Amino acid sequence: MTTPTPWWRDAVVYEVYPRSFSDASGDGEGDLEGLRHRLPYLSELGVDALWLTPFYTSPLADGGYDVADYRDVDPRFGTLADFDDLVADAHRLGLRIIIDIVPNHTSSAHPWFSEAVRTGRGRGRYHFRDCADVPNDWQSNFGGPAWSRTPDGSWYLHLYTPEQPDLNWHDPEVRAEFEDVLRFWLDRGVDGFRIDVAAGLFKHPDLPDLGALGTHAPGSPMYGRPEVHEIYRQWRSILDSYPGEHMAVGEVWTESPEALALYVRPDELHQAFQFHLLLAPWSARAFREIIGTCLDSPNGQAPTWVLSNHDVIRHRSRYGTEERSRAALMLILALPGSAYLYQGEELGLPEVFDLPDEARQDPIFFQGKGMGRDGCRVPLPWSGTQAPYGFTSGKPWLPQPADWGPLTVEAQEGDPASMLSFYRRALALRRTLRAALPPTLEWQEWPDPGVLAFRRGDLVCAVNFGDEPVEFQGDVLLASGPSAEGRIAGGGAVWLRT
Ligand code: NOJ
Q1: Which of 54, 131, 407, 448 is most buried when burial is the number of CB atoms within 10 A of its CB?
Q2: 102, 108, 196, best to mutate for ligand 1 pocket (most atoms within 8 Å of CB)
Q3: For 233-277, where are the E strands, in sequence order?
């Protein structure tokens, strides 16, 4: 007897950044009700699950990754009742719900941190140090030192903004708290968790200098400490204790595929993001190398493919053309494993590079580590020909470009040549093909080295990374653009049945 494939292993998961998805309240920021109204759109798009980035009570110093209450919805995003309605409606439509869990740090507005600063009670839950000089050489990921001082002069550690103090996972209370938080949301019906900064929870107890070591290098005192695996074994047992197939996917940045594989041992997390494509240039050789590394990674982990998310420049802009963006989607949908899409990529949204400085909100911009991530977080265009494009009845929290009229859902829906129609076709086709696709692939050699091609069963996927058209033979199931006369356009792709 064969075991059925668990749903997450080849799911298409759509990342929702709630603040920018759809606003029902009219305050200019997206909310859970806005998302709930748009669920039919997502169901029609053909995705299997939604991953919601944080919507918890938060001052939004880092877009909600600074949580002040892990068991509540921030009023600007709605209420717990809205969340329950959202889950119920999503499930009715066959969409699973994955939520973000942020265990590395809390908000500085979290009662634990306020109490520690005010009264000194519970200081052991964080990393406080009382010394004259900064305790070590660690830098924040967003720029500047990873240490700030409380009003009474104590240092505290924060690997991100000063408003995100790092928790001390050697404290048993921290551990117990998060186990309870997981249960709280599992009881409300979520299907899984995306674990933020999953490799960061434990720090070397002596907090030694990093020195010349890379932040994520093996042996780093900040990330990838072995103690973290015991936590994920415990979380796995909690997930497994609920009926159904609950899953967890870790955000793990590491320099070593072997280290990544440790997180997905059979009794730990189900998946860990493989972010390599986010950083790869548009090149057949680079893509082939990455795909090979990911598929060969030890422990046979279920691969995860990601082209865009709320932390990076949208791939429509990274790759430069719509054709290439379509080809990249065809590539990841044809690979074994699951695909994580980011809201708006189905509309071909570009990165917005020219936001005025006074509109920017990302702490990365303010801490001096570059322009930041606001450009991929601009609210979605739904309808109409000018801002706010049906996103809100108020003023969008980030300004939308004046030329997004042709990119709205409304404008693209009726047009068979649009990006949205293409995404719908590709996702529908993948759904019909997926049960018959073997879990592995065979590379196909093409005369042209700029073409990356592989076979899975009857399906051949060929991507032309070059600029000139190349010829092919076979029945076209899907093409990224006009594939007239048996040619794949430069930057294009085809799915063939051979
Ligand atoms: C990763 C999240 O994706 C990012 O948005 C956030 O700023 C950091 N973790 C810190 O929580």
Answers
A1: 54
A2: 196
A3: 247-250, 271-272
For the question of residue 100 being annotated catalytic, the response is: no
Label residue 485 by pLDDT band (50, 70, 90): confident
Q: Which 3 state secondary structure label does DSSP give 375? A: helix
364-379 per-position pLDDT tens digit: 999 888 999 999 999 9
Question: Is the alpha carbon torsion for 216, 218, 222, 226 positive or negative?
Answer: positive
Residue 398 pLDDT more than 90? yes
- The answer to whether the CB of 272 falls within 8 A of the CB of 263 is yes
Q: Tens digit of pLDDT for each residue in 50-65?
A: 999 999 999 999 999 9
Token output for 210: 């990093």
**In 3D, which of 31, 11, 8, 153 has the Cα closest to residue 81?**
31
Hey, whose CA ends up nearest to atom 4 of ligand 1?
Answer: 311
Do you know the residue count of the chain? 498
CA 346 from centroid of its chain's CA atoms: 15
Distance 64 CA to ligand 1 centre (A): 9
Ligand 1 atom nearest the C-alpha of 104 is 11
Residue of 251, 323, 351, 362 marked catalytic: 251
User: How many Å lie between the centroid of ligand 1 and the Cα of residue 180?
Assistant: 22
The closest-lying atom of ligand 1 relative to the alpha carbon of residue 142 is: 7
Burial class (CB in 10 A: 0-12, 13-18, 19+), 234: middle
pLDDT band at 3 (very low <50, low <70, confident <90, very high): low
Of 61, 57, 82, 84, nearest to 71 (Cα)? 57
CA of 414 to the centre of ligand 1 (A): 36
Token digits of residue 71: 């068991």
**Position 285 pLDDT exceeds 70:** yes
Rounded to an integer, what distance in angstroms lies between the CA atom of residue 347 and that of residue 366?
30
Alpha carbon distance 225, 43 (integer Å): 40
**Identity (one letter) of the amino acid at 436?**
A
Kindly tell me the burial class for residue 43, based on how many C-beta atoms sit within 10 Å of its own C-beta (0-12, 13-18, 19 or more).
Answer: middle
Confidence at residue 300, expressed as pLDDT on a 0 to 100 scale? 56
Q: In the prediction, which pLDDT does 1 show? A: 43
Checking if the pLDDT of 14 tops 60, the result is yes
What's the pLDDT band for 299 if we cut at 50, 70, 90? Answer: low
Contact (CB, 8 A) for 172 and 178: no
Domains plus CATH for the chain? 7-104+172-428 (3.20.20.80), 111-157 (3.90.400.10), 441-497 (2.60.40.1180)
In percent, how much of the chain has pLDDT > 70?
A: 98
